[in-house]
Amino acid sequence: MQGLFAQRQTTSPFTRYGYGDLFSNSTAYNQAMGGIGVGQQTKTQINFLNPAHQSSVQKETFLFNVALGANIRHAKEEDVSATFSSVGLESFSMAFPIIPDRWGCAVGLLPFNSVGYSMNYKDSLAEYTYTGDGGINQVALSTGLRIFKGLSLGVHTAFVFGTTDYTGENSFTDNSSFHARKRLEYKTKGFLWNVGLQYNWEITDGKTITAGTTFRSEQSFSYKQTEYFGSFFTNGVLEYQKDTATLTNSESDTDIPLEIAFGLGYKFDNHYSFGIDAGLQNWEGISCYGTTDSNLKQTKYIKLGGEWIPDYRSARFYKKMPIRVGFHYSDLPIIFTYNNEYAQAKEFGFTLGSRIQSKQTRNNLSFAADFGVRGNSSLAKSLQETYLQIKLNITLQEVWFTKRKIN
Predict the structure, then answer these.
(1) Three-state SS for 53?
(2) 295, pLDDT greater than 80
(3) pLDDT tens, position by position, 219-244
(4) In sequence order, what DSSP letters do the residues of 213-226 get, joined into one string?
(5) Count of C-beta atoms within a 10 Å radius of residue 239
(6) Distance CA 55, CA 146 (A)
């Protein structure tokens, strides 16, 4: 299945659970290094992983970022397998200083989650098809203030909105029968916030250690649920609607879990850097569109990555191209059951990326590839997935508010 979206959708059977795929909002720069960013401070990058980072935006600098994404996924359950792919725009963002070297700001249109799947099976009576499509976006404002030397505090706020559809369809083998289709539509909106801290310690000239942490409390969004039910019949390739009814129309709240993360990074001049992020999400008691799964407790993740630039002073562009590598591992808030056995789904992946920079300007193109697997092979007949995700970031870096001097 292929799709082209104004904003990239995930195409994965795993997205039928919970909220589907939750985006971390890592750029290609972060993703190439395993997704680290909580303990990273880089003046030439936009970083939404820790809002305290925005205090490091260089003076008289404006950053504009366009991100594109693509993924290819191969899913397998027992003897059934399928391959899915999608490509499209992922986000727009910009960053700029408010008070040079002290207070900075980043704004953007970012994805929050994505749902995209299509599954079907047959028996002697009918063919049953289940699909999910849509997701939630966020208009984000992230700001960071340096409180005193080395220590920065940041706040991320966002207005979230979006529509997600889930459809179930029964097509009976007897063409003279009316087929049935049920659709659930969730329109979600609300506000989201989290806070972050970073401490940047310059050990010696050019050598720095950065420690960071972020915290998001359990929060809720409001949603409007509309349920549709209809019947139809087919005549060859054409479909004819018999009737459609709106069964229910209700409003309620859906929960977002508490999340806390820690990060630590080390950087030596413009030669190399590396870091580690770790965190957890507490899914215990979380209600997702009115459904609470008692099996879910806490999920954990860890990310490792680094960057090496062979010779950043070289006149040859390929010697200034960074080599970025990383690894990530996480629990997924999904419990598989089979013959009274339980197993939690896992995800781990390896990442690789680099950057191409213009000789005349500081504009650049960053790219990252993430190859990973999802599932839990310890449980028989459970869903397994292999994926390749590619991120591209076009970053324009301009100098603002400078006066030309004429001698």
Answers:
(1) helix
(2) no
(3) 999 999 998 888 766 666 656 666 66
(4) EEEE--EEEEEEEE
(5) 12
(6) 6
